[in-house]
Amino acid sequence: MTIPGPELTPPTPALAEQVLGWRSHPEVLRWFLMQEVDADEVRDWFTSYDGTDGHLVVATLDGRAVGTASVRVADGMGQQGHEPEFVRREGWIGYTVDPAYAGRGVGTALARDALANAFGRLGLRRVQAGCFAANTASWKVMEKLGMRREQHGVRDSFHAEHGWVDGYTYAILAEEWEQGGH
Ligand SMILES: CC(C)(COP(=O)(O)OP(=O)(O)OC[C@H]1O[C@@H](n2cnc3c(N)ncnc32)[C@H](O)[C@@H]1OP(=O)(O)O)[C@@H](O)C(=O)NCCC(=O)NCCS
Prior knowledge:
Residues 6-175 form the N-acetyltransferase domain. InterPro entries: Acyl_CoA_acyltransferase (IPR016181), GNAT_dom (IPR000182), N-acetyltransferase (IPR051531). It comes from Nocardioides aestuarii. This is GNAT family protein. The chain is of the alpha+beta class and 182 residues long. It has helices at 13-20, 26-29, 39-48, 83-86, 106-119, 136-144, 174-180, and strands at 7-9, 54-61, 64-74, 90-97, 126-132, 148-159, 163-173. It has one domain (7-180): 3-Layer(aba) Sandwich (Aminopeptidase). It has seven helices and seven strands; from the N terminus they run E-H-H-H-E-E-H-E-H-E-H-E-E-H. A seven-stranded mixed beta sheet has the order 1-2-3-4-5-7-6, with helices on both faces. Strand 6 and strand 7 (163-173) form a beta hairpin. Helix 1 (13-20) packs antiparallel against helix 3. The mean pLDDT is 96. Bound molecules: coenzyme A.
């Protein structure tokens, strides 16, 4: 039997409430730097989102919100006098899946949508993301979509449970995404 894939949909206030139901689950929080979820901030984000300044998408299965992904637009690096080349030309992606629905391809579908929007609709030239090295599901999502491990930081990240641990940074360029066929 084939398990149906998630539907990807823009955020709504009702979906925000569903996401808040699992976003603070310990299995989710253990991989984030921020250890508290500000419910009002999430509600505001979902309510005010209009797509002009980034990307936010919700994955649903049977109408239930089971994951989210986002693109935050940021400045790249570059020399003074050439700002149009690098100011607001990069993105950072993030994604989260309800642990009850992990391992069903939802995270990969969400990250694929985030990258497609980053390079398509938002016209960014490079997208990055970071994770704890022990967060295998997260870096597998990135590698499945053609992102490159550009940094392996040795014991560069402090984890509440494990102390100093390794971290990874991944990235992909627009031209690599276009050639990759992901
Ligand atoms: C990272 C996360 C979004 C992945 O979502 P998901 O829907 O489970 O991912 P997918 O089902 O698309 O699986 C992607 C790959 O990870 C693997 N994977 C999934 N869960 C795994 C786990 N717990 N341990 C090891 N690998 C895992 C899958 O097998 C798949 O690899 P494969 O195709 O080689 O088999 C999800 O685990 C999550 O929300 N984690 C907590 C929040 C988080 O870490 N966000 C990212 C912060 S950097």
